[in-house]
Design goal:
Low-confidence stretches: 1-6
Distance between the termini: 88 Å
Strand content: 15-25%
Number of strands: 21
CATH class of one domain: Mainly Beta
GO molecular function: zinc ion binding
GO cellular component, one term: cytoplasm
Largest sheet: 7 strands, antiparallel
InterPro entries: B30.2/SPRY, B30.2/SPRY_sf, Butyrophylin_SPRY, ConA-like_dom_sf, E3_ubiq-ligase_TRIM/RNF, PRY, SPRY_dom, TRIM8/14/16/25/29/45/65_CC
Strand order of the largest sheet: 9-10-21-12-17-18-19
Protein name: E3 ubiquitin-protein ligase TRIM39-like
Shape: elongated
Number of helices: 8
Mean pLDDT: 86
Order of helices and strands: EEHHEEHHEEEHEHHHEEEEEEEEEEEEE
Pfam families: PRY, SPRY, TRIM_CC, zf-B_box, zf-RING_UBOX
Length: 545
């Protein structure tokens, strides 16, 4: 063995896939070496392109080049060992049937001799003219199973009628008139079918992997929804408990205050009585002393002053009005019930607004529908009345003479929500409208005409346009209005976003065509209503209280 070949041991020259001495070795970027044929077959049968040893992945199948150094070492090793790929058979290998001492690994099996041979004992089959005609194959076990049990001949044909392997004599004797094809032909057909099956299985694996991802994503969303709902619930019930605690404190405080006032009043009365008692006792003592006097002049002179010092107030008619606490708890409970009712209703509206905001959509105004006097911002998010009309084409889509504009986006199913900033405005109209609404002439806005809207007039008059305007009560001037639509349920709701309260709901309608968000900034009114109506970005309401 040469010095160069001694640098590597036999184990270092073995392919990690076939466990044999390298045959046309190639080196992967990770540094591991494999037979070129082995690594290609491995990648062809795998979904991912990665190293079998360290599992490092590659983005695509590589252009493999032979490692000449390893190849030369493997070649020298074969020559020095006196065999090319022969080595002692290991578990899982097919052993040579001729080796008597150490069984070498077989490199070929003969279907005629029904024996497997290592490199050394295969030589006669490669050199002897008579043996060259034998059919050799890759090493296989159980060669007897490859022989016809009836005719003792190799199974070289396939009977399609009986779906079984047969020998050359079977079609003549036992499988007459059956459809018989060469085993290789059936092999190619089945291999092609296996390829299709492999592709189909690969697709099925991918489908199931995607389904797992879908389920995990759905579970994640469900978990987030559950956590959010729990957080909302905690906030709602915390607010209710705080209201109960506040009502309890108010009840106790009221009773305590009344009791203290009563005690102060009683204390004052008692102090006056005690003071008069003390004065009377003093007068009584002086009277007793005077009554024992035998000085006529002294008695007469002091009697009048002592008589005048006696209190004249009649206390039998005096009483203390003690409060009755009966019904105090009931009154407090009635007030609490009213307070909680209002708070629960507000919290319900708040929860509805929070859910509605989950369906926020991004809207832009459609200039093709805008009245000629309306001015739209470049980003399509703002609109105001510009007094002077622009020169635009008056198409069937454009409103005239009503100063209105629609959004570009339309909706024909599901839920959607948007918000509009109406701060500093004295007049506006907001909502949704059917695609088929009349856009020419003055058309009253109401559901019968395809509009579901609310408005502000004269700076303080809010109303839902249900036919004749239905006045709405608001606690303070609206600055931001939210519009929620459930197309399938036939519902349109309007919210005061800052107060987090419901303004009005149109319900019980059946939408049969596209709905468009509808905007009207109102007339300029000599600059009083010059502020724009703005489609604002929705900031989700995370805090309920």
């Amino acid at each position: 063995m040469s010095a160069a070949s001694c640098l590597l041991t036999e184990d270092q020259l073995l392919c990690g896939i076939c466990l044999d001495v390298f045959n046309v070795p190639v080196t992967l970027p990770c540094g591991h070496n494999f037979c070129k044929k082995c690594i290609k077959q491995h990648w062809d049968s795998s979904v991912h392109c990665q190293c079998p040893s360290c599992k490092e992945s590659f983005y695509k199948k590589l252009d493999l080049r032979v490692n000449t150094f390893i190849s030369e070492m493997a070649s020298q090793f074969r020559k020095s060992a006196g065999r090319s790929s022969s080595r002692a058979a290991k578990p899982g290998d097919v052993p040579c049937d001729v080796c008597s001492d150490t069984k070498m690994k077989a490199v070929k099996s003969c279907l005629v001799c029904l024996a497997s041979y290592c490199e050394t004992h295969l030589q006669p089959h490669l050199t002897a003219s008579r043996l060259k005609k034998h059919q050799l194959t890759d090493p296989v076990e159980n060669l007897e199973g490859r022989m016809c049990t009836i005719h003792d001949k190799p199974l070289e044909l396939f009977c399609k009628t009986d779906q079984t392997c047969v020998c050359m004599l079977c079609p003549v004797l036992d499988h007459k008139s059956h459809e018989v094809v060469p085993l290789k032909e059936q092999f190619e057909r089945k291999r092609a079918e296996l390829g299709r099956r492999e592709i189909e299985i690969h697709r099925m694996i991918q489908d199931r992997q995607l389904k797992i991802l879908d389920i995990k994503q759905a579970l994640k969303l469900s978990k987030e929804a559950a956590e959010k709902e729990m957080a909302d619930g905690v906030q709602v019930f915390t607010a209710l408990m705080e209201s109960l605690q506040s009502a309890q404190a108010d009840l106790i405080g009221t009773i305590e205050e009344t009791r203290e006032e009563t005690e102060q009043e009683v204390k004052s009365v008692i102090e006056k009585l005690e003071k008069e008692i003390s004065a009377l006792m003093k007068t009584r003592a002086e009277l007793e002393q005077l009554s024992r006097s035998k000085d006529h002049l002294h008695l007469i002179q002091n009697f009048a002053s002592l008589d005048a010092s006696i209190p004249t107030r009649e206390w039998t008619e005096v009483s203390v009005d003690l409060p009755s606490y009966e019904g105090t708890v009931k009154t407090a409970m009635d007030q609490l019930e009213e307070t909680l009712g209002k708070q629960i209703k507000k919290l319900q509206h708040l929860a509805e607004l929070h859910r509605a905001q989950q369906f926020a959509v991004d809207l832009t105004l459609d200039p093709d529908t805008a009245h000629a006097a309306l001015v739209l911002s470049d980003d399509g998010k703002q609109v105001y009345h510009g007094v002077k009309k622009k020169t635009v084409k008056d198409t069937s889509k454009r409103f005239n003479p009503s100063c209105c504009v629609l959004a570009k986006q339309s909706f024909s199913s599901g839920k959607f929500y948007f918000e509009a900033d109406v701060k500093d405005k004295t007049r506006w109209t907001l909502g949704v409208a059917k695609e088929s609404i009349k856009r020419k002439g003055i058309i009253p806005m109401c559901p019968d005409n395809g509009h579901w809207t609310v408005w502000l007039k004269n700076g303080e008059e809010y109303a839902a346009l249900v036919g004749s305007p239905l006045p709405l009560t608001v606690n303070s001037k609206l600055e931001k209005v939210g519009v929620f639509v459930d197309y399938d349920e036939g519902l349109v709701s309007f919210y005061d976003v800052n107060a987090m309260d419901l303004l009005y709901t149109f319900a019980g309608f059946s939408f049969a065509e596209k709905l468009y968000p509808f905007f009207s900034p109102g007339l300029n009114d000599d600059g009083i209503n010059s502020a724009p109506l703005i489609i604002s970005k929705v900031s989700h309401t995370d805090v309920l209280i």
